[in-house]
Amino acid sequence: xxxxxxxxxxxxxxxxxxxxxxxxxxxxxxxxxxxxxxxxxxxxxxxxxxxxxxxxxxxxxxx
Length: 63
What we know:
Blueprint (H helix, E strand, L loop, with lengths): L12 E6 L5 E6 L3 E8 L2 E8 H6 L7
Antiparallel strand pairs: 1-2, 3-4
């Protein structure tokens, strides 16, 4: 499963972590995803959405 929000398309970001001694290493920042049941096009299904979409109310939760 790709770590990508199915609603907004938020995906991992890449960059460097730099220590005080200027040592660098590659790092990947993943989005905070939750798998939940939602109503999509009138049908209940499992979707992988980020918590920002859940808090903003962009997801209609299935009961």
